[in-house]
Amino acid sequence: MSAAHTLQALHALSAVELARGVAAGAFTCEDVVRDCLARIAEREKITRAWTNFDPDKALAQARALDRSPSNAALRGVPVGVKDVLDTFDMPTEMGSPIYRGHRPSDDAAAVALSRAAGAVILGKTVTCEFAGQTPGATTNPHNPAHTPGGSSSGSAAAVADLMMPLAFGTQTGGSVLRPASFCGIVGYKPTFNTINRFGVKPASEALDTVGLMARDLDDIILFRAALLGLSATSLLSHKPRVGFCRTYLWDETATESRGAVEDAVKALRSAGVDVVDVALPVHFAEMRAAHRVIDCRDRAMAMAYEWAHHREGLSPALRDRLQEGCDIAHADYIAALRLGERCRSEMDSVFGACDILLAPTAKGEAPKGLDQTGDPNWQGFWTLLHVPALTLPTSKGPNNLPVGIQLLARRYDDERLLSSAKFVWETLTAKRH
Amino acid sequence: MSAAHTLQALHALSAVELARGVAAGAFTCEDVVRDCLARIAEREKITRAWTNFDPDKALAQARALDRSPSNAALRGVPVGVKDVLDTFDMPTEMGSPIYRGHRPSDDAAAVALSRAAGAVILGKTVTCEFAGQTPGATTNPHNPAHTPGGSSSGSAAAVADLMMPLAFGTQTGGSVLRPASFCGIVGYKPTFNTINRFGVKPASEALDTVGLMARDLDDIILFRAALLGLSATSLLSHKPRVGFCRTYLWDETATESRGAVEDAVKALRSAGVDVVDVALPVHFAEMRAAHRVIDCRDRAMAMAYEWAHHREGLSPALRDRLQEGCDIAHADYIAALRLGERCRSEMDSVFGACDILLAPTAKGEAPKGLDQTGDPNWQGFWTLLHVPALTLPTSKGPNNLPVGIQLLARRYDDERLLSSAKFVWETLTAKRH
Questions:
Q1: What is the DSSP string of A228-290?
Q2: What is d(CA B114, CA B87) in angstroms, rounded to the nearest whole number?
Q3: Mean pLDDT of B390-401
Q4: ipTM value for the complex
Q5: Distance of CA A367 to the CA centre of its chain
Q6: Residue B250 to residue B94: CA distance in whole angstroms
Q7: How far apart are CA A154 and CA A126, in angstroms?
Q8: Do B302 and A107 touch (CB under 8 A)?
Q9: Strand partners, B213
Q10: Domains of chain B
Q11: Which residue stretches of chain A have pLDDT < 50?
Q12: Looking at residue A103, what is its pLDDT?
């Protein structure tokens, strides 16, 4: 990425830089989009991040914005949209042949809100089938033999590959944080259901969260502010009290991910940050099974129409998952929901005096092969906890692929998460340079 | 209703009776649908419960079921669907000119699940504009000068008017319980988000719940069991410990609603039921304002597309409501969500030793006039509490219109609610006859 940055091409600029440049008249919205389109033309045959993508449509949006000046927060900033979010002017195919060419009548709320904030919807990015685990064709921009992660595969890969600065993902298990970590970008899953989910094909309404991806933390802050209508589009850095949370998966975590977290702890301590060990209650390990029960049962219910009419159009893996969901007893489903609520109610004492927790984002760097998207367990139980989660790309693995660290805050404490993350990011960046 | 019941017309039978009759070969699915269609033809010009309704399509479904015998729980039972739930074979217009003729590509999950259980989707019932407060043309079957309640107006009126035994509604404030009470039927709002909401146009995803309507409690139990895939489609009556909960609205509650609850308390005590007074904590009164904040803000976010593209197609009242939502600060929205969570966490101690609470369903009987649907406050805070709620038609008001009593249970305790309600219903019915 550093080489491209040196060129100062528009496509490599951050959303903050692009919005500022457009507002200052340094370049037009059309300039920005043209440059992103050129980058996509150059890289797409390797990265394969897009499922639907129409340069003329993107340019038309940019020209319309150039004709009607405004002070909208994202004016002229290109955004990629995971192909499970509806768009009124582009197909929404959900990574499934069942929905090939499907045209929704309207925009998902998150898409409409970003358009209202001046964003250019560049196109639809590759998703695993129905935001599940059956991958599309996207490759990891750092090494095309490795998975970009999923299910928000195309969004993560396109942002990492400098095709545009911002993208939407969704997370039910680990579908924002894991691909962001694998592709070396910043991924943010807000507190459950705080970015409106209308128009997102649901996997599990008890878990689904619209998330954001960018290369810079300040871009995440800007993007979030624009979607929520906040007046402040930036946040000050806040020195946090940090809980080092190995989680019940520590022994299964790869060396590079453990090292990334341990290095961050060391650097933060050197910077005078109070870092304490935080252990999750033992029964939190039961969330792994509970997450699976909720995910499978909710998917089976939400896809009752496809199950009845298009079963042959589902991948064998998804058919198995839906059958698993159909076979789950309602009482077991309720017990899983109750476990999630119980664990959520205990999070305040888990955090104690800490502002944020620091944990591995993923098991390790992106695994080799495009037939899977990596293990969602490192992200899934946090999703069930409904806490806001952020991954920062701080390290590299044995194959020189990116490795992230995960920061988490209490539910609804997203601004503390983001301002604390700024401090963490500044500290770790200062250390490395 | 009693006259029609005496005729033993199929349209006046309960879902349990219809399913049993079809299964026993006493009549065909087509017989059932024909009889419902005749009833609709007779009554619709007064009741105006339907927004989209195609006799041929309903008959075709019935004939298809007759050709392929099964032991599905709802085989041959006609169901009305509130017109905010998607149907692949009928328009879904959401009570708005913006969506006139709109054809979704698939069924809402609840619709698909009921079809999979053998139900006949009879048609789409009138909803207030986007399940809000701007009414459609439906009248109260007990007196066409009075509102049927809303927003599930057509579903409640059609069930009450013996057009079919079962209907879907949705409740964000009081949109299932209030029309059920006004029309003199049984309305059931399950624990939040336990009937899958995919394909329902959202008002507020933090509040929206798919609910069920029927004339008989056993029909609600059957309908719920079919949707959730439960093996037991009936429940035994359970003598509950009851909390008499006047709520913070008691002084604003009309005499007939207070009387209905007090009469029920007396009858239950006579039947040996332990009824204790239960008071809500004082700060629960703040839920009224919190509910409005969440409702307005979520609607504004979810309808960002309509706001951008079709503002002129919204009613003035809804435009005002969405503007109110746009003006709510994110911090105030989060504070409202937090208040809801806090109150939910206190419900266990509110219930104490009680199995269910008994409270007024609505302020009183259905008000006169079709330009409003009544006051949602008697139902709205319970919706924010996410508890399962049921209304039983036990009484009459000064205009001889129905008045219900509301039963509530702890979250996820829906089976206890329903089995307790059976005991309450049997006790009150025995008293009256």
A1: HT-S----------EEE---TTGGGS-HHHHHHHHHHHHHHHHTT--EEE----GGGGGHHHH
A2: 12
A3: 98
A4: 0.95
A5: 18
A6: 34
A7: 4
A8: no
A9: B167, B187
A10: 2-228 (3.90.1300.10)
A11: 1-7, 433
A12: 96
> Measuring CA to CA, which residue among A310, A312, A301, A53 is closest to residue B105?
A310
Q: What average pLDDT does the structure give for chain B?
A: 96
What pTM was computed for the model?
0.96
Question: CA dist A85 to A108, A130, A385, Å?
Answer: 6, 11, 23
pLDDT the model gives residue A430: 81
Any CB–CB contact under 8 A between A197 and chain B?
A: yes
Q: Are B387 and B410 in contact (CB under 8 A)?
A: yes
**Using CB atoms within 10 A of its CB, is residue A7 exposed (0-12), middle (13-18) or buried (19+)?**
exposed
How far is residue A417 from each of residues A353, B113, B416, measured CA to CA in Å?
Answer: 14, 40, 40
Residues of chain A found within 8 Å of residue B302, distances taken between Cβ atoms: 109, 196, 198
Cα torsion through B302, B308, B309, B313, rounded to 10: 70
Contact B305 A88 (CB under 8 A): yes
Nearest Cα of chain A lies from the Cα of B24 at a distance, in angstroms, of 26
In terms of Cβ atoms closer than 10 Å to its own Cβ (0-12, 13-18, 19+), residue B430 is exposed
pLDDT of residue A3: 38
For residue A321, the distance in angstroms to the closest alpha carbon of chain B comes to: 17
Nearest chain A CA: its distance from B265 CA (Å): 31
Work out the pLDDT band at B380, boundaries 50, 70, 90. Answer: very high
pLDDT at B6 over 60: no
Q: Does A334 touch chain B (CB under 8 A)?
A: yes
CB atoms within 10 A of CB B46: 12
Q: Is B199 on the interface with A (CB under 8 A)?
A: yes
Q: Which residues of B touch A111 (CB under 8 A)?
A: 305
Do residue A198 and residue B196 have CB atoms under 8 angstroms apart? no
Least reliable range by pLDDT among A233-237, B137-141, B295-299: A233-237
Chain B residues whose CB is inside 8 A of the A116 CB are 304, 307-308
**pLDDT value at residue B432:** 54
Nearest to B302 among A194, A196, A309 (CB): A196
CB A140 within 8 A of CB A48: no
The tens digit of pLDDT for each residue in B17-31 reads 999 999 999 999 999
> pLDDT value at position A7?
44
The number of C-beta contacts closer than 8 angstroms across A and B is 100
